[in-house]
């Protein structure tokens, strides 16, 4: 089976970006639905404590996603560059490594979370009122670790051979399963947060099964055969070199959420639940931009590997313009309908009031935040380890956490609310500086051809 050579080499840039990015954006919308489905149906119970428990569990779920991102983004970068260099066998070694590593890491995390559950609950900042709900949710969620990681890994890697639509279908299968099961288990069987976790796990099982079936069907140039598994010849180091900075973005998101939850807990469970709703509502804007970035990453990696530098620059320029336009449109929509958006999650007047204020604060950086996600994926696609690392840990770590302390101390609750948009603006500036430095190297490489 051949990869989509036309997409990578001869298709017009707008069409190529659209073909690979639209399914990636839809896939991210699927991830968005995954993130909000539990909150939405738990919100229908009217129990703010169960909503707060889901919010507290977000960092743990993000850890599973981070493991999948590590292998998926690292693998995608390696495979797309290898295909650009016409090294198909090497691409097979990378995909096989990512497959078995996903299973192993998932099993390790599952057992670790079960063994250290009491310590984990203390770290994420549960209260006496939310501890039982949070424990129930995480106990079941841990079962799904291998499936969540495997699904996340290959929803990225399959795009490296130009099969973005197929990746979207796999994600949609898992999401539809989750949506069907959520109301049945949460409301029909009155299982609450336990039902939400079980639905999430089963949904990811279906998604992982879809990708496994495709990979063993003979329709992919990628491999999951044990004989192709390899960690030498730069496979392990190459995947980790790009995957670790990429996954750190998710890991730092977990850390940032833990810090944020602990700060909000000092103001009360209502404020914590409201921020949880606002963050989930804002995810649609963030995930659209992430999807656009992830969609162009294989195009960037292939063009770089094939030394098609003019096409590479055209892809980056077009993507930045698209990101700003999309961000501006979504920001306007969110600002006008903020109250209705928050109200769709939970029927609690006080949570809706706080949540609307928080959502409008979060979207201030909306028109430009996509630029950062474009540059994150460009740097990953180019295999630029250090710049990618710096940018990945800035948004939720180097910039966010110090600002959280400063703004909470100086402004209080409003300071906490505005920490993320201020962080986003600063991180966009950092991303532009980093890409400017890297682009000078691309000019030198083009001149040496």
UniProtKB/TrEMBL annotation:
It is found in: Cell membrane. This is Multidrug export protein MepA. It comes from the Bacteria. Keywords: Antibiotic resistance, Cell membrane, Membrane, Transmembrane, Transmembrane helix, Transport. The keyword rRNA-binding does not apply. It is a multi-pass membrane protein. Belongs to the multi antimicrobial extrusion (MATE) (TC 2.A.66.1) family. MepA subfamily. GO terms for molecular function: antiporter activity; xenobiotic transmembrane transporter activity. It comes from Halolactibacillus miurensis. One of its GO terms (cellular component) is plasma membrane. The chain crosses the membrane at residues 21-43, 49-73, 94-117, 137-158, 170-189, 195-216, 236-260, 272-293, 314-337, 357-379, 425-443.
